[in-house]
Design brief:
19 helices; 458 residues
């Protein structure tokens, strides 16, 4: 019952207490999500080889595109859910849950149907070579076959967290990660299934996690649960989910485009091992990025609820807390990776050349990392209050508008170093723009809060 009442406290309880309650489970859950890729990379790097790790790097754009469609529904729906609960509209909240299941299933099936017949052509376009195509194909055949499971599992986890059960969402994700680790060891080292073993471990772990989530939402005692009347698509609900979810969707799509450009450029100027090096760098950076995303997910229901209830002072205070925490996280990642890059990359491989390439890339790519936390929180903040255009714009600036020109120009002058250097340069430009937009929004909130106080004093 305490968990069921928790959404109603979003507008009254102390902000720091709410952030601890919602952000810590979300951080653990998102870190656990990042560990999927880390675990796969570590097992593949040591159990299959350096070239298999490069093959895994080739699959990143396809993985990101799959995540893009999942976030389009999951994040858009969870934001809508928080706002509807802030408006005390439970019927709409129930409809959102039903629409999440249907949309994730339809989109997941469509994505698999499009990608499977064209898999080899897609992987070659993404930068695969004769040395890496076999590894990339073996991995993605299994991942695509289980794509619907991945979509439904992640979408329901977003709904679980936003509906007032962040602890349960965290526990389910941790269960999946632990199971994934165990199955990776069995399938790769005992059964000797190679890179395919890592894919099977991922999908089977998600099947278990999805079953636990379905059990929760089928229980009528849960705050939000399935009913027959809500398992149907409703145009207004779908439109709201897709419009808000468009920002994270575009972020993931841009990420896929960028990875394709990076892989192709690294292949041209460096070779297969440089793609493997970027795979390692990206997974290390994503561990810290996922912590910030966990903070963002913890912030989202608090900001969404209070924005819906027009409590702008609480919205502003929540944002300030989260920005400070996010910058602390990315600064910590920056320091660790600048001081100990070799030791970190050795976790993934024992190949001396790959360690050297990855260590150098890690230092350069994360040169502006302390500022990335602020930029990410700002983008998510606009998304959480339903300002989709601003959120989309900020998502595009860091991963597309600023980065693509650098990627097209810099490698021609500096080779692989030009690829590495493009990323921190784009981070600096995007952070500056985010600061300007956030400052303007803060001024608007200040004026709105002042007007509210004037009305209450009259």
């Amino acid at each position: 019952m305490a968990q069921q009442a928790s959404p109603l406290l979003l507008g009254t309880e102390k902000i720091s207490t709410l952030l601890l309650r919602y952000a810590i489970p979300a951080i653990i859950a998102m870190t656990a999500s990042s560990l999927y890729n880390l675990v796969d990379s570590i097992f593949i790097g040591h159990g299959v080889g350096a070239m298999a790790l490069s093959g895994l790097g080739i699959t990143m754009p396809l993985m990101n595109l799959g995540a893009a469609f999942g976030s389009l529904v999951g994040i858009g729906a969870s934001t809508q859910l928080s706002i509807k609960m802030g408006q005390n509209d439970q019927q709409s909240a129930l409809l959102i849950l039903g629409n999440v299941i249907i949309l994730n299933t339809l989109i997941g099936l469509a994505y698999t149907a499009v990608c499977l017949p064209l898999l080899d052509q897609i992987l070659y376009f993404f930068g695969a070579s004769g040395n890496t195509i076999g590894y990339a194909r073996s991995y993605m055949l299994i991942i695509l076959a289980g794509n619907v499971i991945t979509h439904v599992y992640l979408g329901l986890n977003d709904m679980l967290r936003a509906s007032g059960y962040p602890g349960r969402a965290m526990a389910i994700m941790l269960t999946a990660v632990i199971l994934n680790c165990i199955l990776n060891g069995i399938f790769i080292f005992w059964f000797e299934w190679g890179i395919a073993g890592a894919a099977w471990a991922t999908i089977l772990a998600q099947v278990v996690a999805m079953g636990l989530e379905l059990k929760h939402f089928l229980n009528k005692k849960s705050f939000i649960h399935f009913t027959r009347a809500t398992i149907r698509l409703k145009r207004t609900i779908v439109k709201g989910i897709l419009s808000i979810g468009m920002a994270p969707f575009l972020m993931y799509v841009c990420s896929s485009v960028i990875v394709i450009l990076i892989n192709k450029s690294l292949m041209q100027h460096g070779g297969d091992l440089y793609i493997g090096g970027y795979s390692i760098v990206n997974r290390i950076a994503m561990l810290f990025v996922m912590i910030v995303m966990g903070l963002n997910q913890g912030m989202q229901p608090i900001v969404g609820y209070n924005f819906g209830a027009r409590k702008f002072d609480r919205v502003t205070k929540t944002l300030k807390y989260v920005v400070c925490c996010a910058v602390g996280v990315t600064t910590t990642g920056f320091l660790i990776c600048q001081l100990f890059p070799q030791y970190i990359t050795m976790l993934f491989t024992d190949d001396a050349d790959l360690i050297a390439i990855s260590s150098h890339g890690l230092r350069v790519v994360l040169a502006m990392f302390p500022f990335v936390g602020f930029q990410m929180v700002t983008s998510n903040f606009f998304q959480s209050i339903g300002m989709a255009p601003k959120a989309i714009f900020l998502s595009l600036t860091r991963q597309l508008i600023f980065l693509v020109p650098f990627l097209l120009i810099m490698p021609g002058f500096f080779g692989p170093d030009g690829v590495w250097m493009s990323m921190p340069m784009a981070d600096a430009a995007a952070t500056t723009l985010a600061a300007i937009l956030l400052w303007k929004q803060f001024r608007k909130f200040h004026r709105m809060h002042a007007r509210q106080q004037q009305v209450s004093n009259q």
